Structure to design on (1180 residues):
C-alpha cells in the first residue's frame, strides 16, 4: 500500500509478462511434472528462510557468549524427561541451544556457500569470457591453468590456501578473517567449470552475425561480452552454481570439521559436528545428530534441485 | 603418435614445474624460514649468517632451481613439528595411504559394478529405485559424516570393528602392511567403505548408464536374435563393453581417492599422508604442506599421462583425431 | 573364539611368509606380553630436557633414570644414586650405583652426572630449575659426585626426580651435547633417539604415530612390571580413544573424557581410575606490559589495576565450572597449589563469586562497559581446557568484558606464551610443582621476572610481581624448620591473594581408563610409570 503508484505500475506492467513467460516455459512445465523437484525446491526455500530469519526465530544467539549459561548445559531434547523449554532440541556442554546453533550454523553455511559461489563464478566467468573472446596465447594460458587446477580436488586446494594464508599472516586469525579466508579458498577451488562453460559458449557466439554487427558499429569488447554474450550463458552457469553451492557447503563443513575452519565460539554446521562428535559415547547424541541432519538435508535438497535443473535445461535429455 | 606422446609428456613436466613454483613460494615466502629454524632469542648477526647459509639472499630464480633440484632428489627439508626430514615422514606414511586407497578402489569397483549392472538390468524394480536414491544420498553426505556414522554403528554400538588406526602391521623392508594380520585387515574395512562410497556411487551410475546404452545397440539385439542366452548377452557382451570407460574413470579417480583420504584418515586416525597433511595445516608446517602438494601433483600427472597414453594405444580413433592437433 | 582367532592369524601370517619367502619378525610377538597405551598427545621429544610435560616426562621415566627417584607415594627413593648425604650445609654427596650400563652398553659413571648437570642447565633446556643454578658438580671418584652450593639449601635435590641422566659418550658421538629446545625445528639426534639406563629401551619412535618400548634385558635392578613390550599410540580424537579402550584395542588411555566415564565404568572389561590430581588449573593476567596486547584499551594496561583483577576473579563462577564443565570431577581451589602439598591449605577460602561486585569494580576502575582482551587457551592439554575457557568467556561477557578466545593445540599455545616470548595478555595454565613443594610456586610462578639472568619467575607469564613474595621465597628456601616454613609459605600465599595476582580455578581429577587385565600404579602426579605396570598375559 505504501508503494508509490508509479513504481507499482512499473512493477505490475513489467512483472506479468516475465512471470507469464516463466509460467509458460518448458522449465516450469518440467518443474510441475517433477514432484521431487518441487519437494526439493520447497525444502531449499524453507532452509533459506530459516537461515535468513535465524536471529528472529532462535531462542538465543549462540555466538553471543553472554547468552550462554552453564546452568543450561547438556539438556536433552524437549521430549525427554529432563528436556526444558525453550531448548527444543537440547543444549551442548556450554549451554548453547542446539536448535539455535543449527539455525545460525545453517546461516553461516549458506553465507559461506553463496559468497563462495559468487567469488568462484565471478572469477570463472571473467576468465572464461576473456579466454573465449581473446583466443590465442591468452586462451591457452588460462585453459592450461584450469587443466592443472581441475586435477586437484577442491578440498585440497582449500586446505592449502588456508594453510598458506595462516603461515603468511602469522598463525592466528580472528573469526571474520577466517570467514573471508574460507570464502576465498572456496572461490579459488571452484572457478574452472564456469570458465570452461563460458569459454565454450563465447567461442560459438563470437562468430555469429549479431556480435560481428556489434563490432562493426563500434561497440567495445567488454560491452559486447557483457551485454550480448553473457545473457546466453546464464542457463548453464546457473546449473553449475546450484551444484557448486552444495559442494561449497560441504567444503566449508569439511574444513571446519578438520579444525581449520570456523572456531567453536562461532560454530558453523561443520564445527558443531566436530565438537558434538565428542559426545558420541556419552548418550548426548543430540549435540551431533541435529547439526548432522541439518547439513545432510541442506545439501541433499540443493543437490536434488541442481540435478533436476541440469536435466531440465539440457535439451538432449528432453 | 610420437609427437602426441612428447607433447603430453612435456605438458606434464610443465604442470609439475607450475606446482613446484607454488610449493616453492609457500616454502620460501610463507613465514620467515629463519624464524622456524632458530630459537626466538637468537641474535640478529647469527640470523643473518643462517640466512646466508640457507642461500636466502640469492636471486629467487637460483633459489627455485635449488629447491627444484632438491625436490627431484626427494629432499624437501625438515618438518617443523617433528624435526625430521619430510621425505622420511612421507615414506613412513605412504604405505598406509596407498593400502587404504587400493582397498577403497576395489570396494568401489566391485560394489559399484554389481549395483550398476543390477539397476540397469532390473530398471523398474523397487530395489533398483532404492539403490538410485541411496546413491544420491551417498553423494550428498559429506565424507566425514559417513565416517562418524559408521564408527557409531559398527564400533560404538555393535563393537564389531575397530574405530581407529591400522591395527597390527608387518614390516617388509621399507613397506609396512596391514594385509597380513587379522587386526590389520579388520581395521581396513570401515575406512575403505568411507573413502570408497563416493566413487562407488559414481561407478554405479556410470555402469548403469553405459549398460542401458549398450543394451539398446544393434549388436546386442542381433545377439539376442541369434538366440544367445540372456546371461551370455548381459555379461559376455554388454558388461564387457561398459568396462573400458568404467576402468578409465576408476583410474582417474585413484588420484582423488588419495587426496580425499585426508578426510577419512582424520576421522579414523589413520596414520597416512593425509593425516600428516592435516596436522601440518593445523600447525602451519610448511615443508610438509609443500612436499605433499608436490607428491599429490606427481601422482595426478602420472595417472593422467598413463591414461592418455593407454587411450592412444587402445583406441585408434583418438589417434586419428589427436594427431593433427 | 580367541584360539580360533590366533590360529587364523598365524595361518595368514605363515601363508604370507611362505608366499614371500620371508620369516616374519612379528611372529614371536604373539607370545610377548604387550601393553598398549594411548594418550591424546604425543611423546613430544625423546630428549629428556626438551619439555616439562607430564606425559612426556613419564614416558622418559621408563627409559631414563634420575639420581633420586620417587616411589608410588612420591617419597624419595634411591635411583642411580644408591645413597646421598650432606656432609656440610652447602655440600651434597651422591654415591652412585656401580655396574649400571646405558642401553648402548657404555658404563654409567660420575662423568655422566656432571655432563647431565651442565646439559640440563644449558640454554634451551626446559628443566633448568630442576638443578640449582649456583651448584657446581665435582667428581670425587668414578662413582661419587659432590654438588657444591653457594648458600645452604635444604631442598636443592627436591626436583631431581625429573632430572634424567644422559650418557656423555653417547651425546658426544651423536652431536647431542646441547639440549633440544622445544621451539627448535632442526633435526636433533637426541630428540629422536634415547639412550638411558632404565628398565625399558625404545626400539621404534615414529613421532605422532607410535613408540615401541621393549624390556631392557640388561637392567641392573629388579622390575615389578611383567611386560615384554609396551606400544604407545597417539589418539587425538576423544571418541576414537574411548572406542579403542572399550573394544580392547588398547589397555590404557588418558584422558577419559568426563562425559564418557560412565560408559567406561559400565563396560565389563574396563574401569576409570580417578583420583584428585596435584595439578592446579589457574588463570594468569599480564600485569607488566605498559599496554595490554590485543585490547581495545590503549596506552594503559587494565590488569595493572588491582580492582580489575578482583573483578575478573569475582566474575568467574568456579562452582558452575566444576559442576557443569568438569561434571563434578574437579575440586575448586583457592590456592595455586593442591591441598595435599601444603598443610595449611585449609585456611584459605576462595573469594565468593559475585558478578555484581565485579561490574561495580570494573566501573570504579574506569571500565563501566568493560573492555576487550584476548585469551590464550590450549585445546588438547588439560581436561576440557577449551570448554573451561569458553565458559569463562561467557561469564566475563556477562560483566561486560569481551574475551577473544584463541584456543590452540598445545604445541602452538606453549610456543606462544612460554619463555622467551611471553606473548599473552590473559591465559589458562595448569601447574604441578615438580618439587611437590610451595617454594616452586612462590619462585617460578609468582616470583618477579625482572632479572633476566635468574630463572626466578620463568613461568610467571603475566609477570605478577611483588618483591615481598620474592623475599619470602628466599626465606622459605633456607628455612629448615617445617612449621616455621609453612607459616612463611602461608604469608606468601596471603600476599598473592590480597594482590589478586592469580585466579586459581581447580585441581582436575586424574582419569585413566584402564583395562581390567592390567594393574597400574596411579600416582598423584599423574605419571604413568611403565615399570609398575603389569598385565595378565
Amino acid at each position: 500500500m505504501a508503494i508509490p503508484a508509479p513504481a507499482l505500475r512499473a512493477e505490475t506492467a513489467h512483472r506479468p509478462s516475465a512471470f507469464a513467460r516463466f509460467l509458460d516455459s518448458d522449465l516450469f512445465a518440467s518443474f510441475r511434472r517433477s514432484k521431487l523437484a518441487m519437494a526439493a525446491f520447497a525444502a531449499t526455500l524453507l532452509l533459506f528462510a530459516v537461515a535468513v530469519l535465524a536471529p528472529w526465530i532462535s531462542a538465543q544467539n549462540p555466538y553471543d557468549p553472554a547468552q550462554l549459561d552453564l546452568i543450561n548445559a547438556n539438556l536433552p531434547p524437549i521430549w525427554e524427561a529432563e528436556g526444558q523449554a525453550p531448548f527444543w532440541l537440547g543444549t551442548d556442554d556450554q549451554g548453547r541451544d542446539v536448535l539455535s546453533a543449527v539455525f545460525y550454523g545453517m546461516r553461516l553455511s549458506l553465507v559461506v556457500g553463496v559468497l563462495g559461489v559468487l567469488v568462484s563464478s565471478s572469477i570463472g566467468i571473467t576468465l572464461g569470457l576473456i579466454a573465449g573472446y581473446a583466443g590465442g596465447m591468452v586462451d591457452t594460458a588460462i585453459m592450461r591453468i584450469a587443466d592443472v587446477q581441475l586435477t586437484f580436488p577442491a578440498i585440497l586446494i582449500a586446505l592449502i590456501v588456508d594453510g598458506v594464508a595462516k603461515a603468511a599472516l602469522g598463525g592466528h586469525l580472528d573469526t571474520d578473517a577466517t570467514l573471508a579466508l574460507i570464502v576465498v579458498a572456496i572461490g579459488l577451488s571452484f572457478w574452472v567449470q564456469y570458465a570452461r562453460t563460458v569459454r565454450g559458449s563465447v567461442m560459438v557466439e563470437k562468430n555469429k552475425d549479431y556480435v560481428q554487427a556489434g563490432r562493426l558499429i563500434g561497440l567495445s569488447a567488454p560491452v559486447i561480452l557483457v551485454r550480448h554474450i553473457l545473457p546466453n550463458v546464464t542457463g548453464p552457469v546457473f546449473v553449475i552454481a546450484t551444484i557448486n553451492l552444495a559442494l561449497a557447503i560441504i567444503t566449508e563443513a569439511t574444513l571446519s570439521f578438520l579444525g581449520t575452519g570456523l572456531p567453536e565460539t562461532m560454530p558453523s554446521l561443520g564445527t558443531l559436528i566436530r565438537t558434538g562428535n565428542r559426545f558420541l559415547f556419552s548418550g548426548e547424541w543430540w549435540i551431533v545428530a541435529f547439526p548432522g541432519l541439518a547439513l545432510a538435508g541442506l545439501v541433499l535438497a540443493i543437490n536434488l534441485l541442481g540435478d533436476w535443473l541440469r536435466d531440465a535445461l539440457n535439451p538432449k535429455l528432453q | 603418435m610420437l609427437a602426441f606422446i612428447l607433447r603430453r609428456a612435456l605438458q606434464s613436466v610443465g604442470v609439475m614445474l607450475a606446482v613446484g613454483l607454488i610449493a616453492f613460494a609457500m616454502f620460501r615466502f610463507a613465514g620467515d624460514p629463519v624464524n622456524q629454524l632458530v630459537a626466538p632469542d637468537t641474535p640478529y648477526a647469527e640470523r643473518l649468517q643462517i640466512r646466508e647459509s640457507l642461500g636466502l639472499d640469492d636471486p629467487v630464480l637460483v633459489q627455485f632451481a635449488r629447491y627444484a633440484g632438491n625436490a627431484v632428489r626427494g629432499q624437501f627439508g625438515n618438518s617443523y613439528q617433528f624435526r625430521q626430514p619430510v621425505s622420511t615422514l612421507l615414506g613412513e606414511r605412504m604405505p598406509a595411504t596407498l593400502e587404504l586407497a587400493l582397498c577403497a578402489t576395489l570396494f568401489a569397483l566391485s560394489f559399484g559394478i554389481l549395483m550398476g549392472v543390477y539397476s540397469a538390468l532390473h530398471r523398474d524394480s523397487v530395489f533398483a529405485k532404492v539403490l538410485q536414491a541411496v546413491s544420491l544420498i551417498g553423494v550428498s553426505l559429506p565424507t566425514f559424516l559417513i565416517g562418524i556414522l559408521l564408527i557409531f554403528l559398527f564400533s560404538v554400538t555393535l563393537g564389531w570393528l575397530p574405530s581407529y588406526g591400522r591395527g597390527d602391521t608387518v614390516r617388509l623392508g621399507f613397506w609396512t602392511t596391514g594385509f597380513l594380520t587379522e587386526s590389520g585387515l579388520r581395521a581396513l574395512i570401515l575406512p575403505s567403505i568411507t573413502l570408497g562410497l563416493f566413487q562407488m556411487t559414481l561407478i554405479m551410475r556410470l555402469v548403469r548408464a553405459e549398460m542401458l546404452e549398450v543394451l539398446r545397440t544393434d549388436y546386442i539385439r542381433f545377439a539376442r536374435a541369434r538366440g544367445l542366452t540372456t546371461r551370455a548377452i548381459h555379461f559376455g557382451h554388454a558388461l564387457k563393453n561398459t568396462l573400458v570407460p568404467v576402468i578409465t574413470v576408476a583410474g582417474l579417480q585413484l588420484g582423488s581417492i588419495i587426496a580425499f583420504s585426508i578426510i577419512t584418515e582424520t576421522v579414523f586416525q589413520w596414520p597416512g599422508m593425509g593425516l600428516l597433511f592435516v596436522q601440518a595445516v593445523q600447525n602451519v608446517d610448511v615443508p610438509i604442506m609443500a612436499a605433499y602438494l608436490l607428491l599429490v601433483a606427481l601422482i595426478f600427472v602420472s595417472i593422467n599421462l598413463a591414461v592418455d597414453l593407454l587411450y592412444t594405444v587402445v583406441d585408434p580413433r583418438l589417434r586419428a583425431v589427436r594427431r593433427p592437433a | 573364539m580367541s584360539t580360533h582367532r590366533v590360529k587364523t592369524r598365524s595361518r595368514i601370517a605363515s601363508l604370507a611368509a611362505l608366499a614371500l619367502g620371508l620369516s616374519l619378525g612379528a611372529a614371536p610377538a604373539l607370545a610377548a606380553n604387550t601393553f598398549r597405551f594411548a594418550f591424546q598427545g604425543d611423546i613430544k621429544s625423546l630428549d629428556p630436557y626438551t619439555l616439562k610435560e607430564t606425559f612426556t616426562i613419564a614416558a622418559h621415566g621408563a627409559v631414563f633414570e634420575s639420581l633420586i627417584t620417587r616411589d608410588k607415594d612420591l617419597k624419595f627413593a634411591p635411583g642411580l644414586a644408591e645413597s646421598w648425604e650432606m656432609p656440610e650445609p652447602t655440600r651434597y654427596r651422591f654415591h652412585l650405583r656401580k655396574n649400571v650400563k646405558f642401553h648402548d652398553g657404555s658404563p654409567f659413571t660420575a662423568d655422566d652426572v656432571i655432563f647431565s648437570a651442565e646439559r640440563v642447565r644449558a640454554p634451551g633446556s626446559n628443566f633448568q630449575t630442576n638443578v640449582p643454578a649456583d651448584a657446581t658438580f665435582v667428581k670425587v671418584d668414578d662413582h661419587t659426585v659432590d654438588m657444591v652450593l653457594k648458600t645452604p639449601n635444604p631442598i636443592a635435590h627436591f626436583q631431581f626426580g625429573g632430572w634424567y641422566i644422559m650418557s656423555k659418550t653417547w651425546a658426544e658421538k651423536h652431536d647431542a651435547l646441547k639440549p633440544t629446545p622445544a621451539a627448535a625445528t632442526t633435526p636433533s639426534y637426541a630428540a629422536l633417539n634415547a639412550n638411558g639406563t632404565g628398565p625399558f629401551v625404545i626400539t621404534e619412535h615414529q613421532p605422532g604415530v607410535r613408540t615401541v618400548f621393549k624390556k631392557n634385558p640388561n637392567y641392573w635392578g629388579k622390575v615389578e612390571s611383567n611386560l615384554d613390550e609396551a606400544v604407545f599410540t597417539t589418539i587425538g580424537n576423544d571418541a576414537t580413544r574411548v572406542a579403542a579402550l572399550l573394544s580392547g584395542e588398547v589397555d590404557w588411555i588418558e584422558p577419559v573424557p568426563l562425559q564418557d566415564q560412565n560408559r567406561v565404568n559400565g563396560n565389563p572389561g574396563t574401569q576409570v581410575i580417578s583420583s584428585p590430581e596435584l595439578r592446579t588449573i589457574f588463570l594468569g593476567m599480564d600485569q607488566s606490559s605498559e599496554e595490554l596486547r590485543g585490547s581495545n584499551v590503549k596506552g594503559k594496561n587494565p590488569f595493572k589495576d588491582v580492582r580489575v583483577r578482583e573483578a575478573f576473579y569475582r566474575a568467574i563462577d568456579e562452582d558452575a565450572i566444576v559442576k557443569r564443565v568438569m561434571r563434578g570431577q574437579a575440586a575448586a581451589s583457592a590456592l595455586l597449589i593442591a591441598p595435599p602439598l601444603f598443610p595449611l591449605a585449609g585456611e584459605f577460602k576462595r573469594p565468593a563469586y559475585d558478578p555484581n561486585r565485579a561490574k561495580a569494580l570494573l566501573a570504579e576502575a574506569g571500565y563501566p562497559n568493560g573492555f576487550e582482551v584476548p585469551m590464550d587457551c590450549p585445546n588438547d592439554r588439560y581436561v576440557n581446557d577449551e570448554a573451561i575457557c569458553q565458559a569463562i568467556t561467557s561469564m566475563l561477557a556477562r560483566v561486560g568484558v569481551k574475551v577473544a578466545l584463541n584456543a590452540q593445540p598445545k604445541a602452538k599455545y606453549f610456543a606462544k606464551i612460554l619463555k622467551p616470548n611471553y606473548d599473552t595478555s590473559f591465559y589458562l595454565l595448569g601447574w604441578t610443582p615438580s618439587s611437590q613443594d610451595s617454594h616452586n610456586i612462590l619462585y617460578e610462578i609468582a616470583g618477579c621476572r625482572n632479572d633476566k639472568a635468574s630463572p626466578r619467575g620463568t613461568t610467571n607469564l603475566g609477570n605478577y610481581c611483588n618483591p615481598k613474595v620474592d623475599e619470602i621465597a628466599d626465606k622459605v628456601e633456607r628455612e629448615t624448620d617445617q612449621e616455621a616454613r609453612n607459616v612463611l609459605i602461608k604469608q606468601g600465599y596471603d600476599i598473592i591473594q590480597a594482590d589478586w595476582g592469580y585466579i586459581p580455578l581447580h585441581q582436575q581429577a586424574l582419569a585413566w581408563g584402564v583395562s581390567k587385565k592390567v594393574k597400574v600404579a596411579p600416582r598423584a602426579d599423574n605419571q604413568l610409570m611403565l615399570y609398575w605396570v603389569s598385565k595378565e598375559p
Remarks:
- Confidence is low (pLDDT under 50) at residues 318-325 of chain B.
